[in-house]
Amino acid sequence: ASGGTYQHNMNGGALTTATWNANSTCNVAGVTNTLPTGLGQTFGHFTWNCTGQTATVSNLVGSGLVNVAGNFTVSSTNGQILNFNNSGTNSTITFGGNFAITNGNVDLASAVGSTTINVAGNISVAGTSTLDSSTTNATTVNGTFVINGTGVQTINLATPANCKYYNITINSGSTLQLLSNVGLSKNNNAPFRGTLTVNSGAV
Fold first, then answer.
1. Coil, helix or strand for 160?
2. What's the pLDDT tens digit per position in 160-178?
3. Could you tell me which residues come within 8 angstroms of residue 22 by beta carbon, excluding any fewer than 6 positions away?
């Protein structure tokens, strides 16, 4: 129902299968080291709030999370890492709302498969949270944010040095406003530099 929340308070297991209202929330709160199944659904809002996480949890997008109609929020990884893709397959996820890391660490790609993140809302990384692509394979295209909403979208990185090695593409008809410095590169090695692409008609 609109405004309702499903709370997943277990490690692993399966997310309930449902027809998710666009204003409902799936709150994953109990994972310590094992990703739940049942990710291949279209969720309303999706929140990762695992205060008891004890290890890197890998392949969130590669394991099926590809559609979130509203906001995607990482509010706790307990100092650990939430990995989007550690496979050899390229993956794409679409967020109809905002992408926010309020307290946690996200790795967009750690193997040879790249991750594309379509975002219709704003991007924010708060505090000392981190956003990275940890792949060491120079031929891997790192994580790419595609700005595809209407109106003005914003990106705000509280600690830009903690957010590195990703690409930003601004689609035609979309506008991105920078509310902070943005660093795209992991280091000075050419293969690990991110790119900013502004398509025709974008601002």
1. helix
2. 999 988 899 999 999 999 9
3. 2, 44, 69, 70, 96
